[in-house]
Every structure is written in C-alpha cells, then in structure tokens.
Amino acid sequence: MARLTSLPPAQAKRLAEAECPQFETTPWVIGPPLSQRRVAVVSSAGLVVKGEMPFRGRDADYRAISSDTKPEELLISHISVNFDRTGLQEDWNVAFPLERLQELAADGLIGSVGGTHYSFMGASDPVQMEPHARELAGRLKQDHVDAVLLCPV
Amino acid sequence: MSALAHYLEEEGIATVAISLIRPQTENTRPPRALWVPFELGRPLGPPNEHEFQKRVILAALQLLEREHGPVIIEDFPDDDPRAQPDPSWEPPIEPTGAAGRSSEALAARLETEIPLLRDAHAQWQAQRGHTTVGLCALPIAQCGRYVADWLRGCAPPSMREVFSAPLMLRFALDDLKAYYLEAAAVGASKPSSQQLGDWLWNETAAGAAILALREACLTSEDERLRLIAGNFMVPAARVPSPG
Question: Nearest residue on chain A to B8, judged by CA atoms?
C-alpha cells in the first residue's frame, strides 16, 4: 500500500520527479554506540502544541515539543492532504515516536531521549528551512543530543 | 527530510532519516536513510503495534553505528500489516442520502450529519484519550457551520484574527475531516486508511460538501482560495476525473 506503484500514477510521477536539493558535500558525523546515544526526533508533519501558532502555508521554521508533551496536546498542521492522517490520529508514534524511544531507552538499547523534539512542515522550501535547521543544531547540542531520527510523512 | 539531515549533519549532529519516497532520497543523498514500504503519513508503519514500530526505529538508528559512509540507503523488509482492509469494520452512521446536490442542500445535509457523529467521536476520545481536532479552535458544530456558510456562497470572514479567511477555511476543513475519520475509527476493528477514506469521500455529506466547495472555490477571484481549493482541500486520489 505504500510503494509508489500503489499511488495514483500522476501523484507517483510527481513525487518521484519532484525537484530535490542537491548538495556538493557529503557530511558524516560519527559517535558512540547506540546504547550511549541521546536521541531526538525531528518530524516533518507540521506538528504543533495546542495553543501555539499552526504552520501557515509553507512556514519554514520549526516548533519545539517537550518530551513530556502528551498526545492530547498535539495537532497536525501540515498543508498537504496527500498523506494518511488516520494512523497519526490513532497513535502519534506512527510519525512522532516519543513513547517508543522512551521504551528503547528503558531497555538500554539507546542511551537516553532528548528533552525536546521538533517539527517542521515538510512541504516548505528546503532553502528557506536551512537557517532554521542550522540554528536547531545548536539547540540539539545544548541538549547533548548526538543522534537525530528524522521522520517524514 | 533529506535536506534537513544534510544541514544538521553539516552542523555536527549525526542523523538518520526514514524515507517514504525512495527516488527523492536517492536524489538528495542524506548521510543515512532507511526506506520503508509504508503508506505516506506512516513512517513507523502500523498504529499501536509497539514491537513493529520499535523494529523500524532500531533498523534506522543502527545505521548510525555503520563505519562506512556516506551515503547509506537501506530498505526495511516488511510491509505494514495494517494496510489491509478489516472486513469487520462498519461505518459509524448510515449514509444520510444522496438526494439534493445543490450547494444549499449539501450545506444543510452537512450541518445535519455532524451531530450524528457526536457519540462516536466522544467514544473515540474516551478510547484514545486524545483528538487531533482543534486547529481552528472552534466547537465542531461551529466549524461545520463555517464550512457550510462557505458552501452557501457567504464567504464568511475569518473567526480568528491570526488567520486569513482562506486559511481559516483550510483549518476548519482539516478539523472536519479529522472529526469524521476519528469517529469512523472508533471500536475494536482496525480499518485501513483506504476504508476510512472511501467512507468519508463516497458516503458522507461532508465528503460531497467538501468536493462541491472545492469546485466552487476554484472559480474564486481570490488567488489564495483558488490555491487552497486546487491543492489542499481534497486528496489528489479523491478528486473526480474531468468529465
């Protein structure tokens, strides 16, 4: 149900041929074993905590989501209507797996879970997102995060 | 996602991206990615399948321990077991009738239909402990009235200062769809997204109303409204073919 062949042909073609940013460098950061890593989630689902400003149009900034946020406090404000939301409605971990990461940390499979997690709105222009992403890296370092799991929708 | 991976890694943070659209990942070449054969919107696969979700996460995070790269793009081997329809699933309400396709009739049917789902949606909230309805911060009946007024051609002003009227309409539609889809997924059955979408778009007054509203807004003089109508009201797979 998820491969491009399962989508309407026009949508599959548009997705497969979408213009993607090209980079001249290939960065590569190494680190300790997984059992010692502090992991944060960065989602592109346009998630916002209730009461905060939803993503409007193609806002390129991000929202911070504390690790003690409850599912009932989150909303989806992604602009696209072409991805499934019923999975997320039933269980946030489908695209924002905080509870699963906390279980992996409790089992010692990862070191710990970051104190704050983040969401962009993935249909935004990557060029516009770049300064926000670079600023976000500083916040992640302050939280001693050394592994980021990027979750698309 | 792949661009974000690139920026963060350049700044010294190790990343691994889950990929849903492999050709895009191949083009952007993030440091590490795990392609998953799941539906768009479900990067971890099936809801409430904890062990399955953790297998996906670990398959992704373990790429961080590889010594040789970049670029690593691996494939997750298993399909989402929840992608299959559940024959035991039943819609929460009977169809409210196909008669009356005028804008006024559709608007009235929509406003009649919303309260019919009240009990099912309350059950959903009791069962799940949360709801994703709330973007426009209106009670659902008011949200439905706002959408119905657009359908009646009233072009109502935004009800929140921080949103333009077209944006208010988009958020009201998102809330309305979330209310219906949550109400439809209540109970012990495990419907696929296709089942839920078929019901919303083919059998409800809300589906018919949103499709009609889309058509009406496509002829608006407001460019923002035309943009939202054309791209952000109805999934591409649910837009009727021309003619």
Answer: A137
- Structural domain including B129 reads 103-238
B67 and B19 in a common domain: yes
| Rounded distance between C-alpha atoms, residue B101 and residue B205, angstroms | 10
Query: Do B128 and B225 lie in a common domain?
Result: yes
Asked if residue B95 belongs to a domain, the reply is: no
Q: b/e map of A64-78 (b: 16 or more CB within 10 Å)?
A: ebebebebebbbbbb
pTM score of the predicted model: 0.94
- Beta carbons of B128 and A90 less than 8 Å apart: yes
| SS3 state of residue B145 | helix
Q: Does one domain contain both B47 and B109?
A: no
B148 C-beta neighbours (distance < 10 Å), count? 22
DSSP state of B72: E
Q: E strands within B25-110?
A: 32-35, 72-75
How big is the A-B interface in CB pairs under 8 Å?
A: 276
CA distance B105 to chain A (A): 26
Shortest distance, CA B37 to any CA of chain A (angstroms): 5
Is B192 part of the contact surface with chain A (CB cutoff 8 Å)?
yes
Residues B190 and B232 in one domain: yes
Average pLDDT, chain B: 94
Q: Specify the number of domains making up chain B.
A: 2
Please choose, from the candidates B132, B95, B129, B137, the residue with its C-alpha nearest in 3D space to the C-alpha of residue B113: B95
Each residue of A12-44: pLDDT tens digit?
887 777 777 888 889 999 999 999 999 999 999
Statement to judge: residues B141 and B200 lie in one domain: yes
Domain range list for chain A: 35-151
| B28–A21 C-beta distance less than 8 A | yes
Residues in a beta bridge with A148? A40, B15
CA-based nearest residue to B144, from B182, B106, B90? B106
